[in-house]
Amino acid sequence: MKKITLLGLFLFSVMFTYAQDNKQWTLEECVNYALENNISIKQSELDTDLAGIDKSDAVMNFLPTVNANASYNINTGANVNPATNQFENQTFRSASGGVNSGVNLFSGLQNWKALQRSKINIIASQYQLDKMKDDISIFVANAFVQILYNKEQIKVLNAQNKITKENLERTNELVDAGVLPKGDVLEIKATDATQIQQIIAAENDLFISKIGLAQLLKIEDYQTFDIADEDYGLFSDAILEENPSAIIEKAKEEVYDVKVAETNLELAQKDLELSRTQYYPQLTAFMGYSTRWSSTNLDFITGQEMPFIDQLYTFDGTSMGLQLSVPIFNGLSVRNNVRRNQVNVERSKYLLEQANLDLESEVYQAYNDAKNAKKSFEAATQTSEARKLAFEYAEERYTVGLTNAFDFSQASINYENAQSEVVRTKYEYIFKVKVLEFYFGIPIDQINYN
After folding, report:
1. Residue 254: CATH number of its domain
2. 306: part of which helix (H) or strand (E)?
3. Helix (H, G, I), strand (E, B) or coil at 198
4. What pTM was estimated for this model as a whole?
5. For residues 217 and 34, is the Cβ–Cβ distance under 8 A?
6. Which structural domain, as residue segments, surrounds residue 357?
């Protein structure tokens, strides 16, 4: 029974490992995995962690500071006895300790403004993280579509090469029968060799594109990595019916470029407010407790060294008070810092304005790209259909000896190129539509079908 159980576990392990090695990733799985494992996203997540730490610092600045100190000394020669504050020219040991506390009462609302800035910084870092996720999602989608294109291209090339090999076999028969000259065989063999080279190059392009996507996902097993073949023949392009102005307004809500610029402007304004607090005086309250001990302190009654604990009680003391610091002249450093932050505010305003302009330009560009990609795909499809008819006609003429191998090969090459162009424009069209949908708030990994 134990052997059967171990055998079952072994078979399950093998099957599980095989399933893992032969996993085919969907677009949604690729995007979700990248969002969890991509290095750039992890770095942005660290920035959000730092923003949270900055907020913690800002909150803690409202609390008083408490510090303890202690020292132990062996003194020789003329030194001040810390217990009696008298010079003593002899060797003695001494110790002192204390606790000090201070609290900021007023500094131009510096702590309050720092707290407000830290809250804005958390929002800004989150927007940066979300923007990074959007960018990575687009990169993943582009890499995914590139793999699909390379796969489809290999299918087209293999199908065309299959036809060429069939024609080569038929041509050999016609040459043997004396219907066609022997040179026609050489022409078709050359076409076959060229197609094989194209297949090899396409397979290499496919492998490289897989490596690119795997690196985005931080997957090291390049050899077995693969994606699921999906049919995008009936995908929806309803987004092209939307007005570009409506897409722009939606993009301002969904895309984070403008939001990042807005929060950066708020941060610059808070930095300006913080720099201005340096003009104000600072008022702090402090309180301290200290005590001392020395080996030369004698008890007046016994003449013996005063006990350690007794000295701590005898020579202790407290202090408390207020400290006011008024800025009068500091080399214009505060003024220059204020002016520097004023410049940063103006720069952030321009960057926000530019972000809005860039977003409008990107949306219009994406809209036109998607429309033109659709037209290119439709034109390529019509061309492919015409080339197919021309190829079939040339094939019929070649079979009965009414045309030579060179003209037939040219018709075959033209048809092959037309098919490749259909594949290229199809996946370019898919990606352009997905980018436009992304600006409209539709997730990049969501494929809409008619």
Report:
1. 1.20.1600.10
2. none
3. helix
4. 0.79
5. yes
6. 107-280+327-439
Residue 64 near residue 101 (C-beta atoms within 8 A): yes
Per-residue pLDDT reduced to its tens digit, 294-307: 877 666 556 677 88
Distances (CA, A) of 241 to 213, 225, 367: 32, 37, 10
Query: Considering the domain boundaries, does residue 301 fall inside one?
Result: no
Q: What is the pLDDT of residues 102-156, one digit of tens each?
A: 999 988 889 999 999 999 999 999 999 999 999 999 999 999 999 989 998 998 8
Predicted confidence (pLDDT) per residue in 219-257, tens digit: 888 888 998 877 666 567 888 888 999 999 999 888 899
Tell me the sheet residues that pair with 68. Answer: 99
Residue 107, classed as helix, strand or coil, is coil
CA dist 190 and 153 (Å) reads 20
Q: What is the DSSP letter of 109?
A: S
Determine, yes or no, domain membership for 197: yes
| Cβ atoms of 432 and 214 closer than 8 Å | no
Handedness of CA 173, 176, 180, 181 (dihedral sign): positive
Three-state SS at 320:
strand
Encoding tokens for residue 437? 């949908």
Alpha-carbon gap, residue 204 to 225, rounded angstroms: 14
Residue 225, classed as helix, strand or coil, is coil
Identify residue 279 by its one-letter amino acid code. Answer: Y
Burial 125-159, CB ≥16 within 10 A → b, else e: bbbbbebbbbbbbbbbbbbbbbbbbbbbbbebbee
Total number of domains in the chain:
1
Amino acid (one-letter) located at 383: T
Full strand arrangement of the beta sheet holding 317-325: 65-75, 92-106, 282-294, 317-325
Residue 235 bridge partners (DSSP): 449
Strands (E), 55-91: 65-75, 78-80, 87-89
Give the sign of the dihedral formed by CA 47, CA 53, CA 55, CA 58.
Answer: negative
Is residue 18 one of the residues assigned to a domain?
no
Whether 20 is in a domain gets the answer: no
